[in-house]
Amino acid sequence: MKKPVCKMHGAPRLAAPAIQKKAVMTAVKRHASAGPHPSCDMAPYSISPKDFLLFQAMIYRESGIWLSEAKTALLTGRLSKRLRALGLRNFTKYYRLVDTDEEERRTMLDAITTNETHFFREPGHFDFLSQNVFPRWHQEADAGKRPTQIRIWSAGCSSGEEPYSLAMLLLKHFPVERWQLEVLATDISARVLEKAREAIYPIEKMKHIPQEYLRAYMLKGRGDNKGVMKASPELLRVVRFARVNLHADSYPIQGFFDLILCRNVLIYFDQKSKEKVISGIVRHLSPSGLLFVGHSENLGGISPNLRTVAPTVYAPMPSADNPSRKIAH
Predict the structure, then answer these.
(1) Angle between helices 72-86 and 91-100 (to 10 degrees)
(2) Fewer CB atoms < 10 Å away: N or C end of the chain?
(3) How far is CA 53 from the centre of its chain?
(4) 10 Å Cβ neighbour count for 288?
């Protein structure tokens, strides 16, 4: 009889239902059967300058991502596998398809988007929250100046490592007996959102998770499940996922957020798209909230309604109309 999946070594054992063997093996087989990256799967098709411009304009129009001519190899490499799967001989035929088929257009965007991340990426942000933000929230709640509800939006969450990292941090600092915690995680890619919901990761990714969080919130596979780990039920209860295109004119999101993290996302946009995305995001930021961007990103000249609190951390400018508006949830 195989051992049940349990928490990381040194912690009490957790009942097997917390991570189903079937779910793990299904995910492992699916990842294995996916094959190599499109750019590695046989030589890519060639694309004419005219077709490249058509795809460039469509991708920009749909997602705000700007592919310069230097990205021609990236485009052909990532889409060639799709052409082979559909039995299409050239990019002209594929463009005609994506121009009329919304589902295939989403599949194309899934292939184009880059999904590179890891747990507790850019740890300085997490230290800033633990040392500067969370203590203040506790003080304000004790004084009746803020609700005991925390909402965080991970915008461009990729395969889920960021929102689950945030959930670990919240659960450590805010007992669920008193606090209501929510992390909304969104991405334009349906493919990576599916992976994020599964919450199953190669065991190698554990190296980025501090030991106290690893032992408390991650489940390690044993036996046939060896080599993978899964986010615990506690994390799954805090995080929810949704597909959101940040380049859209509006988002299917309600209310305001105490924190919004849009990190290492803006680097794929041109100036005009950056301004549009930041404007859309800030509409959902609480007046007392904070916006985090990646350490290689800067909002200088993009949004005059934000002020710098710390490097890559921004807050809304005080509103003369209603400077004391409370957080709306």
Answers:
(1) 80
(2) N
(3) 28
(4) 18
As annotated, the active-site residues are: 78, 187
User: What DSSP line would sit under 52-70, residue for residue?
Assistant: HHHHHHHHHHHH-B---GG
Mean pLDDT of 295-315: 91
pLDDT of residue 28: 39
**In the chain, what are the domains?**
38-112 (1.10.155.10), 123-316 (3.40.50.150)
Report d(CA 265, CA 157) in Å as an integer.
Answer: 9
- Please give the Cα distance from 278 to 299 (Å, whole number): 9
Lowest mean pLDDT of 15-19, 162-166, 241-245, 281-285, name the range.
15-19
pTM for the full predicted model? 0.80
Residue 133 tokens read as 């933000």
> How far, in Å, CA of 146 to CA of 148, rounded?
7
**C-alpha 275, offset from chain centre:** 20
Which run of H or of E encompasses 91?
helix 91-100
Predicted local confidence at residue 110, as pLDDT: 87
